[in-house]
Amino acid sequence: xxxxxxxxxxxxxxxxxxxxxxxxxxxxxxxxxxxxxxxxxxxxxxxxxxxxxxxxxxxxxxxxxxxxxxxxxxxxxxxxxxxxxxxxxxxxxxxxxxxxxxxxxxxxxxxxxxxxxxxxxxxxxxxxxxxxxxxxxxxxxxxxxxxxxxxxxxxxxxxxxxxxxxxxxxxxxxxxxxxxxxxxxxxxxxxxxxxxxxxxxxxxxxxxxxxxxxxxxxxxxxxxxxxxxxxxxxx
Length: 235
Hints:
Radius of gyration: 26 Å
Number of helices: 5
Strand content: 5-15%
Distance between the termini: 36 Å
Structural class: mainly alpha
Number of domains: 2
Strand order of the largest sheet: 1-2
Largest sheet: 2 strands, antiparallel
Helix content: 40-55%
């Protein structure tokens, strides 16, 4: 009824899943099913794999865009598809421009959030005029223009951004902790990697995601990237 796998996307599993849902069927979770796979062991292999996943997912979302916000397809149309669009397309760019915005604020002299405050005057700044607890006074200015720099890293980041950033970290750790609690075979120490993922690794994946989106928009040629298998998976 729905046909076989089609070759017009690089995420054929997601494509056929949505075709099954479109036909009115359901996909049922089976907790007893266990799949064994070999994960990439190098950053290059991981980047190739994720590039194919991300660009293929974008192709699938474009192919089945008629499902988005369509109540005919139940929760898939009203929740899953919009969430995939936000989380897979909008959110990485939002984070990218937010970080760029912070960098501009941190290094823009006229910004209230800059990490340094230039002070220009006809002599040394007040804090550099020889005032100290020992002499209690100031040396006379020589009248030459000088620039003083006051550095304050805590002033550089808007507090509201810090709040929401930490809130997302706590939320992701909580979700990861719940996922680990459902799988008794997973090591609980893996929870520590969630914080590391949020602070560094996530941004690398977002860059790969954005590059895949740009190349899809500009119809850059794509080929099936094959991961180099090392036989490291154990059963």
